[in-house]
């Protein structure tokens, strides 16, 4: 099952691009690993309280090994440094998963946009699209040619149109060229740094809702998870402080304002409230991408604020 | 409004998503039709004992879920994430509350709250437990379809209860309606998260197809007549 930790052996740990380490993991007993699908990730326990998620970027049809790729991020919180400094072939790593929150949906054609290490979930997706015989277009940007992992593997995938965009040679990827004209039954997948995601979101704003599927591989620039913020309940005329780690719904109820609810886990949607202003930090499991993007409603049982103030229609 | 069928989880159900949606839609429609038929018959013969008898298998489902959910946790819980154990336990608690609430409604109508499986609910209960024995996700699939079937009964129940001034029945089922969104979403999330292969998917479809043929039947007026015979 995917929810339990398993210790896997590091079969190999090799650089595949500047500051990118590719790690293959196998079962120490030689058994098959759980199956996975493109877009899946695993949790890796790096010790010292560092648990990180990495996309699987190998071959889903190879049950013997998983592959991940890790970019060294000197300004990160220590996870990637530890991988680069301590993970070696023959060692072991506790791993949990795989899980897939970024699955490849059925579509007639695909557009993939990747930035830097964001290529990792895209690579197996692109291969799957090719295997299905669906036309695909991929735009892959990176700081420099040497920093772009898996470029050779990508060139070997048939049936599509791949454009590599090293920034030091060609500048930023030309998004309007691939996203300017919406096409029917097309799925757009994007993974990369926040500015790229924001740009792709802008370029696909006129595409049908649900077209864009994206995964952030760096934390969004928001207040820390669990950070305190203020909430104004507009109809009740209350201003409340939501302390770190205390659910917004608890604070609202403690103030004597009733909100119908059931699961308090972001699943049932019963506590849905309208957001008058402020930006929700959605943590639920049930709102659609479109609802999340619009930010007009939220589930206060699990979701919080991206800024210092939320105003709710309560 | 939020659609719990879109709950996020893994992508394990994607290959069978279309059939699952079809099964769920089908049982909602069957249950709605059966409930409409019951309240149409109740309009002609508004005997509180008949309504109490109609509620009895509903009531039993609630307590049977309590037993089943706890057995699911006992047998398979350590294969799931901790949050899913917590949420299964929460669902179990809510089902116990529903057993109590529907029980009170039955008593208010002069009926008797079931303390063992009513004859008309036996096929449903037997199938559910058989699914639990077969596979960790089969019982989840069976109860998920059964819970979804109940959602087809709510609107006809509210309309029928309103026609007969049964405000307490409406209040109780409004509460149950809310909780069942959670239960349906949880089941779908667990299945999509933990299904690993085609064998798992086959077990899920077997459980859902089997329950589709059973779940709606106790909502019919004929079921009540057979129970009273």
List keywords for this structure.
heterodimer, A: Rossmann fold, Ubiquitin-like (UB roll), 8 helices, 18% helix, B: mainly alpha, Heme Oxygenase, Chain A
Your description of this structure?
Chain B: InterPro entries: Ferritin-like_SF, Haem_Oase-like_multi-hlx. Chain A: Residues 3-105 form the FAD-binding FR-type domain. Chain A: It holds the Pfam family Fer2. The complex is a heterodimer of chains A (314) and B (229). Chain A has 314 residues and is an alpha/beta fold. Chain A folds into 3 domains: 5-99, Translation factors (Elongation Factor Tu (Ef-tu), domain 3, Beta Barrel), CATH 2.40.30; 109-216, Rossmann fold (3-Layer(aba) Sandwich), CATH 3.40.50; 229-312, Ubiquitin-like (UB roll) (Roll). Helices cover 18% and strands 33% of the residues of chain A. In chain A, the strands form 4 sheets. Chain A has a 6-stranded antiparallel sheet, with helices on one face. In chain A, strands 9-8-7-10-11 form a 5-stranded parallel sheet, with helices on both faces. A 5-stranded mixed sheet of chain A has the order 13-12-18-14-16. In chain A, strand 12 (229-233) and strand 13 form a beta hairpin. Chain A is globular, with a radius of gyration of 21 Å. The two termini of chain A are 41 Å apart. Residues 218-226 of chain A have low confidence and may be disordered. Chain B has a single domain (22-228), classed as Heme Oxygenase, Chain A (Up-down Bundle), CATH 1.20.910.10. Chain B is mainly alpha-helical. Chain B is 76% helix and 0% strand. Chain B contains 8 helices and no strands. In chain B, helix 2 (48-76) crosses helix 8, helix 3 runs antiparallel to helix 6 and helix 5 packs antiparallel against helix 6. Chain B is globular.
Summarize the structure.
Chain A has about 325 residues and is an alpha/beta fold.
Question: What is the number of E strands of chain B?
Answer: 0
Q: Helical stretch count of chain B?
A: 8
- Quickly name the level 1 CATH class of the largest domain in chain A: Alpha Beta
- Alpha-carbon distance between the two ends of chain A: 41 Å
Strand content of chain A: 25-35%
Global geometry of chain B: globular
Q: What is the average of the pLDDT values of chain B? A: 93
Inertia-based shape of chain A: globular
Please give the CATH architecture of chain B: Up-down Bundle
Name the assembly state: heterodimer
> Class by helix and strand content of chain B?
mainly alpha
Query: Structural class of the secondary structure composition of chain A?
Result: alpha/beta
CATH fold name of the largest domain in chain A, please? Rossmann fold
Mean pLDDT of chain A: 89
Low-confidence stretches of chain A: 218-226
CATH superfamily of the largest domain in chain A: Nucleotide-binding domain of ferredoxin-NADP reductase (FNR) module
* CATH fold field value of chain B: Heme Oxygenase, Chain A
Largest sheet of chain A: 6 strands, antiparallel
Text of the CATH class of chain B = Mainly Alpha
**Structural domain count of chain B:** 1
The side-by-side strand order for the widest beta sheet of chain A comes to 4-3-6-1-2-5
GO molecular function (chain A): 2 iron, 2 sulfur cluster binding; metal ion binding; oxidoreductase activity
Cofactor (chain A): FAD
Domain FAD-binding FR-type (chain A): 3-105
Domain 2Fe-2S ferredoxin-type (chain A): 229-314
């Amino acid at each position: 099952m995917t929810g339990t930790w398993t210790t896997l052996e590091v079969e190999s740990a090799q650089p595949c691009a500047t500051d990118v380490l590719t790690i293959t993991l196998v079962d120490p007993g030689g058994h098959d690993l759980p199956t996975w699908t493109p877009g899946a990730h695993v949790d890796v326990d790096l010790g010292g309280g560092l648990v990180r998620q990495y996309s699987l970027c190998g071959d889903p049809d190879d049950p013997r090994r998983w592959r991940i790729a890790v970019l060294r991020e000197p300004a990160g919180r220590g996870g990637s440094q530890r991988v680069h400094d301590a993970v070696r072939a023959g060692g072991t790593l506790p791993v949990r998963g795989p899980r897939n929150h970024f699955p490849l949906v059925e579509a007639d054609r695909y557009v993939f946009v990747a930035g830097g290490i964001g290529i990792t979930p895209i690579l197996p997706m692109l291969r799957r699209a090719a295997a299905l015989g669906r036309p695909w277009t991929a735009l892959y940007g990176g700081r420099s040619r040497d920093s772009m992992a898996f470029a050779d593997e990508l060139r070997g995938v048939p049936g599509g149109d791949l454009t590599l965009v090293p920034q030091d040679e060609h500048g930023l990827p030309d998004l309007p060229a691939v996203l300017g004209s919406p096409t029917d039954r097309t799925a757009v997948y994007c993974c990369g740094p926040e500015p790229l995601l924001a740009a792709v979101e802008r370029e696909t704003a006129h595409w049908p809702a649900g077209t864009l599927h994206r995964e952030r591989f760096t934390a969004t620039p928001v207040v820390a998870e669990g950070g305190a913020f203020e909430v104004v309940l507009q109809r009740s005329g209350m201003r409340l402080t939501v302390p770190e780690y205390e659910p917004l719904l608890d604070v609202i109820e403690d103030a004597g304002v009733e909100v119908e609810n059931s699961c308090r886990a972001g699943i049932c949607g019963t506590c849905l409230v309208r957001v008058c202003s402020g930006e929700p930090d959605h943590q639920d499991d049930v709102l659609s991408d479109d609802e999340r993007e619009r930010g007009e409603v939220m589930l206060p049982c699990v979701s919080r604020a991206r800024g210092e103030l939320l105003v709710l229609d309560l | 409004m939020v659609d719990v069928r879109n709950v996020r989880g893994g992508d394990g159900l994607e290959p069978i998503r279309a059939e699952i949606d079809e099964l769920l839609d089908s049982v909602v429609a069957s249950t709605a039709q059966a409930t409409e038929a019951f309240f149409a018959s109740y309009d002609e013969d508004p005997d509180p004992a008949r309504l109490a008898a109609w509620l009895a298998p509903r009531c039993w489902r609630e307590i049977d879920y309590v037993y089943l959910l706890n057995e699911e946790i006992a047998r398979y819980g350590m294969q799931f994430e901790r949050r899913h154990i917590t949420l299964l336990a929460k669902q179990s608690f809510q089902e116990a509350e529903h057993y109590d609430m529907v029980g009170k409604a039955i008593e208010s109508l002069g009926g008797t709250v079931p303390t063992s499986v009513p004859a008309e609910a036996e096929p449903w209960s037997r199938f559910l437990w058989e699914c639990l024995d077969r596979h960790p996700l089969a019982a989840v699939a069976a109860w998920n379809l059964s819970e979804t079937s109940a959602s087809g009964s709510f609107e006809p129940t509210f309309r029928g209860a309103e026609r007969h001034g049964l405000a307490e029945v409406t209040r109780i089922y409004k509460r149950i309606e809310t909780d069942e969104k959670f239960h349906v979403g949880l089941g779908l999330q667990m299945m999509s998260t933990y299904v690993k292969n085609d064998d798992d998917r086959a077990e899920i479809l077997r459980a859902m197809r089997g329950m589709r043929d059973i779940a709606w039947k106790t909502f019919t007026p004929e079921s009540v007549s057979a129970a009273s015979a």
